[in-house]
Amino acid sequence: MMDEFQNGIAAGRPGSLRGDGLAPVMMGTVEPPPLPETAPRAAAQKVSPEELALIERIRAGERELFMDLVRPYQKLVYSMAVSVLKSEQDAEDVAQEALFKAFKNLAQFRGECKFSTWIIQITVNEARHRLRRANRANEESIDAGIESDEGDYIPVDLADWREIPSEALQRKELRECLHRAIGSLKPIYRDVLILRDIQHMSVAETAEALKISEASVKTRLLRARLQVRDALAPGIDGSWNSGSTTYKRVRSF
Amino acid sequence: MVEGKTIVEISCFEVWRRISDFVDDEVGPDLKQRLEFHFGRCKHCKALLDGTRNVVALIGDEAAFDIPRGASERITSALLQRIEEDARDASAE
């Protein structure tokens, strides 16, 4: 379990980061082990020299530099928390908690993955932990599509798609709809979607971070994207574009 | 036939399996040509393609996940306070 945390990865085993979304090592006040002497060399492979230098200085005692280290990821951390919790207030609390846990466990970060990947996993685990405590784990899934014998996802609606312009993201309801759609995905799909399409990690990086094959990354990403597309479909006949606040079903062919 | 080359048609089901790879430009040239040929003839799959591309663009847009006004400052402030408290606790031990 400690290795999972050190690597900032999800192992896909029951009870691990990937299994139930909780990483016991992160839930208590576990003292991190001393940093292995080989860590700087390993870190150099994945972490930028600037980040590596910051991490070393923080480890050496310059605690105040931690904010400089995590500032570029604050938005991502918050977004991840919102996606899981679907509550801005809870997400704020979880973002703060996740960042503090990252600070407390910084010595365990060995640079075997990107720092952003590591911090994302801490956030996801913290958010899921919060979700469980709040007994809200029975979230509604948007798994509305039909799963064929081969496990393919069949889109719910194949009607014409009217593009939702980026400007529409200024509208809170569209952003909330996106957050709900992503948050309602099963974790195995959501994690891939977030790493690929929000964090813009490559297929190989995502596979490495989640300890799954590249083929699995592609399969899960396909499913996640199609499900989110289906979730947004009720808005595509004009409500996102025209400013209307009412949902209208899309005309079918 | 396109420019003297035969393009083997593929089914909508097969297109759906590969549509995400197509959006990411992670399909080989032959399959890419077959998919493009299909999208040119099948309005359903073209709609699916457009929708998938739109979703990827929206999710990847920075504006999709803005931090509410004041939240960033609150997180930073609380975090700094906890780090300071942690330092005091560590020095007291």
Description of the molecule:
The complex is a heterodimer of chains A (253) and B (93). With 253 residues, chain A is mainly alpha-helical. In chain A, 54% of the residues lie in helices and 2% in strands. Chain A folds into two domains: 125 residues, Rna Polymerase Sigma Factor, Chain: A, CATH 1.10.1740; 91 residues, Arc Repressor Mutant, subunit A. Chain A has a two-stranded antiparallel sheet. In chain A, a hairpin with a 5-residue loop joins strand 1 and strand 2. Chain A is globular, with a radius of gyration of 19 Å. Chain B has a domain of 56 residues. Chain B is built from four helices and no strands. In chain B, helix 1 runs parallel beside helix 3 and helix 2 packs across helix 3. The radius of gyration of chain B is 25 Å and the shape is elongated. Chain B starts with 11 loop residues before the first helix and ends with a helix. In chain B, 22% of the residues are buried. The mean pLDDT of chain B is 87. At the A-B interface, helix 6, helix 7, strand 2, helix 9 and helix 10 of A face helix 1, helix 3 and helix 4 of B.
At a glance:
The complex is a heterodimer of chains A (253) and B (93). With 253 residues, chain A is an all-alpha fold.
Lay out the secondary structure.
The complex is a heterodimer of chains A (about 250) and B (about 90).
Chain A: H1 2-7, H2 24-27, H3 39-46, H4 49-59, H5 66-70, H6 74-85, H7 88-104, H8 115-133, E1 146-147, E2 153-154, H9 172-183, H10 187-198, H11 203-210, H12 214-232, H13 239-242
Antiparallel strand pairs in A: 1-2
Chain B: H1 12-23, H2 29-41, H3 43-60, H4 71-92
Helix pairs in contact in B: 1-3, 2-3
